[in-house]
Every structure is written in C-alpha cells, then in structure tokens.
Amino acid sequence: MSIFARVALLAVVFVDLIGQGLVFPIVNELIMSTHLSFLPLSTSQAERHLYYGLCIGIFFIAWFFGAIYIAKLSDSIGRKKGIVICLFGALIGYLLTILSLFVNSLWLLILGRAISGFTAGNQPIAQAAMIDASNSEQEKARNMGLIVAGISAGLVGGPIIGGVFSDSSLLGHYASLKLPFYVATLLIVVTIFLVQRYYTDTKPPIKGIRIKLSEVFTQLLHIRQKPVVGRLFWAYFAFMIANNAFFIFMTNYMTSRFHIGLFGTNMEMIVLGVAMASASLFLVAPILKRFDKISIVSTVTLIMALSTLGFVLSTHFLYCYVFIAIFYLSFGVAYPAILSLFSGSVSDDEQGWVMGVTTAGFTLAAGLSSFVGGGLMAISLTISFYVTAGFAFLALLLVVFTWRIQPIKQIAKA
What we know:
By secondary structure, this protein is an all-alpha fold. 82% of the residues lie in helices and 0% in strands. It is built from 17 helices and no strands. The chain has helices at residues 3-21, 23-32, 45-77, 79-103, 106-118, 122-132, 137-165, 168-171, 179-198, 215-221, 227-258, 261-290, 293-313, 317-344, 351-379, 383-402, 406-413. Helix 2 (23-32) packs antiparallel against helix 3 (45-77) and helix 11 packs parallel to helix 13 (293-313). The chain is globular and about 55 Å long. The two termini are 23 Å apart. The model has no long low-confidence stretch (mean pLDDT 86).
C-alpha cells in the first residue's frame, strides 16, 4: 500500500472522527446553554440533559445498525466503494445539521445525526483495509496504531475547527456555530477525492455474499459460533460502556458543574485527542513489544476506572483535564491491543466482519450509555461516572477471568 493510500485512509478516519470532536461540544452548547435560542428558554436543565442524551444516543444507535451491515458490505463490494458510500452519508448528515441550525429544529438535528450515524462505518472499513495491507502481526499492530493516530487527529481537529470557526474574537462577524460544519463538509469532499484518486483495494471483494438488514443482528449473533470472539467481546463491551459514558458526558458534566462554556468543552476534546495521539505515537509500539496484550488491557482498564473516580471527585475543572488526559492516554494504549486480539481470533476472510463487530459493540455501548446516562444526569451530575467506573471494574474482572484460555493467550503473545 502506497503512502498516499495510507494518507487517504487516515483522512477517512479523520473526517469520521471530527464528527464527534466537532459536533459534541457544539451540540452540548446548543442544548445546554440558556443564552441561545435553539431550545425554548423555558426548557428545564433536566429536560436539556435528556435531549442531549437523545441527540447523541440516536447517532450511536444508527451507527450500530449501520456498522455490521456496511462493514460486511465492504467485504462484498470492496473497501473503496464502502468508504465512498459512508462519506456521502456523512455529507448529507452535515447538510441537514446546517439546515437545523438555520431553523432551530432539534428534530432536524437529530435526523442529521441519525443519517451521519448510519453511514459512520468508515472506521472499521479503514481498519479492515489496513489489515488487508499488513504482512505481519507487528505491521498489523503498527497499522492499528496509525488508525488510533487518525482517531486522535480527528478528536483534536474537530474541536479546533469548532472553536476557531465559531469564535467571533478570531473571525469577527464571519464566525458562527454553522461555519465549522461548512468546513467539515469541505473536508469530506476533499477526502472523497483522495480516496477516489489514490486508494485501490488490496484484496478482491468476496463474491456470493448476500446481505440483508436483519444481518445487523444475525452477524452479531454469529459470535456464538466463535467462542474466542465471544470471550473477547463481553469484556470489550463493558470496557466500551466505560469509555463511551465517560466520553459522552464529560462535556455535559463540566458545562453543568463548572460552567466552562464552548471554549472549555473544546479544550476537553483537545486534551483527549492529544493524549490518544501521544499514546499511539510514543507508547503503543514499545508497550506492545514488551508486554502481552492481556496484561496491557488489564492494567489500562484499572487506570481508566481510577481516573473516572478522580475526575468526578475533582473540585476544580483543571484537575478534570488531568484525569481526562490519563484516561485517554491509557485508552490509546489499550485500543490497538484489543483490535489486534479480535483480528487474530478470525481468518483473513472474516476481518471485515470482526472489525464490524468491534464497532457494533462500541456503538451499541455508546447508544445505551447516551440514553441511560442522559436520564441519570437529569437526576444527578455524578451518578453516571460512578456507573462508568463500575463498568471499567467489570471489564477488568472479565478480562482476568475469561481471557485466560490458551487460544487468547497465544494471540496475546503474537
């Protein structure tokens, strides 16, 4: 795979993730701020928490339905076509989001988020494309590290784009909450060009695959026929509930408790992205080389649980930034190790499926965290984070007691 093809795939992951790094702080500002007219001023804080959870949850549930379907579709029609379909879906989603801001429509915003979510399958396809081009386990781990770097760049780039282009002190009257979405739309158009021009499938499509929408569930249920994948999945699912609950509600929590505003929530995303990028650039390779993957995931999950407790017990918003950095520095080390374990648990012909399973687990966990967490935040600002820590400890127990079988140990040492 050429350097330009890798750049195209990283651009795909980047624009996929700016949708979270850019959208989440702005959606939080739109829904939680009483200084904006997006929601009626009479909307209570409890209702605002519920609307925030609904808006974010719809995105992830739609992503869940699209994840396995589009990932398997990429096995059938080729990675390139699958990526382009997702990019055009993101384009439509952004256009609807822009329209929702013109007419102050929460439901149009939710529709745009749903369409963006259903076609947000680019990350597992890009992962599968990187795996297709890997010639060894070490190269595979490095390529997964590149994917995390693309994720990190998106999470950093999103809030930078959102912060700069919505800041009137920098851009004067040109700044608005709409302008960042125009920029994101342009970046998607550029990415479509890069993929069409430079990326070519390294693995031919698998003929004869029939895909039905019901396979969103049947392909996930296929885990029952893969006992190693099943053992990996349930610990991963608890791990992702912890990760997503922390990620989704950290901006909501700090806005409500410390009143940090759009700049402060953008800084959260930047700290998060820099931590993950630092992990992928400086820590992933040496740690994966020195330690087995089970030990890495166990240690990191414990750190994430303790970081969550530190975050919610902090009495100053600056301490919260420190615990966000520790949490996502740890996550950035664990995630490539987990992806490598899933990849090593199946044959080459099932890489698209298993990467779709990991994304389905991630999105289902995020959707559940959003809907349930929104209700919990309406009751108490802190309860969601104690639940998050609980799921991190649960993931640790599942890793310790269900991953200690010979097939997983062998993959962990590869």
